[in-house]
Amino acid sequence: MKLLLLIATFFFNAAESNSQKIKLILLDEADHSPIQYATLCFKNSKSACLLSDSLGVIFLDRLLNDSLVISRIGYSTKTIFLKELKANNDVCLTRNTKLLPAIVLSKNEYSNLEILGNTRRSNGLISLIPDLEIGRFFWNLGGDKFLKSVVIFLKAQVNTDYLFSLEIHDFDIQKKKPTSLLANQLVLIQTKDAYNYKHTILLEDAVPINENVFVSVKYLGSQLPGNRIELFTSNRWKSKSTYERYLNRDWSEGTDAFFLKNSIRKGNNNILMQIQVLGK
Fold first, then answer.
1. Is the pLDDT of residue 167 over 90?
2. Burial of residue 7 (number of CB atoms within 10 Å: 0-12, 13-18, 19+)
3. How many CA atoms, within 13 angstroms, populate the side-chain half-sphere of residue 74?
4. What pLDDT, on the 0 to 100 scale, is given for residue 263?
5. Which of 71, 78, 221, 262 has the lowest tally of Cβ within 10 angstroms?
């Protein structure tokens, strides 16, 4: 009987040890300031992704056979093996932002204002999950222009805050791939009206763009875990301009685009997006 109790106690302690909580504090490598709203995902398990709080803190269960993928706009993605972590851990992330010169806008300097992008043919939706990035390229814009704002169309729960990251890239029309990063920023979208699907994202600084530009949004999460949010799409266009990537992997489009291909409506599934550009 004593032997059975000893065996039971051993396995109970082992299980308790494996399931103990781990505390991570995410810090900026340069100045050791806390990094909030960073996304932490388990690489192998199907557990939900987590967000760091305002102090850069994340609590998680110990899963010895898994690893963590930590990402945040403006920082390089970092992978950590759980078995190497202690009860309390400081994790530093390295900045990878590209600084752009500020551009002052005035009515005298800029008179040409264009809104580009077809948004009148919505017939589908694509569900967003944390770390899924959806982007669209715009071409033949001409030179000497600046990107001022981006418009996306969301179906979301009212009175809920949603956190996104927005990125602007050059686009290689020959290789059909986004290239160098021009700008990025965090975006907090607040839904107040159930019937207002249009959300305009103003850029912190207008971004100088070439003839072709690629714009992407990545859903980071909301204050309601598991809350559903969707982007409006259309499968009526002949040209495919929408791309996707998950967990910062390579961009995919067409038959390789898993999430777009498996959304509610089958077909090209281009997202509805507009950009507002300024010309001199």
1. yes
2. exposed
3. 15
4. 56
5. 262
State the pairing for strand pair 270-271/198-209.
unpaired
Residue environment code for 150-171, b if the CB has 16+ CB neighbours within 10 A, otherwise e: bbbbbebeeeeebbbbbbbbbb
pTM of this structure: 0.59
Q: What token pair was written down for 244?
A: 């996707």
Maximum pairwise Cα distance, the chain: 90
Instruction: Name the burial class of residue 8, with classes exposed (0-12), middle (13-18) and buried (19+) by CB atoms within 10 angstroms of its CB.
Output: exposed
CB 181 within 8 A of CB 169: yes
Dihedral, CA of residue 185, residue 190, residue 195 and residue 201, to nearest 10: -20
Tell me the pLDDT band of 20, cut-offs 50, 70 and 90.
Answer: low
Q: Is the dihedral of CA 35, 38, 44, 46 positive or negative?
A: positive
Amino acid at 177: K
213-222: strand order across its sheet: 177-191, 160-172, 213-222, 132-138, 242-246
pLDDT digit string (tens) for 209-222? Answer: 888 899 999 988 87
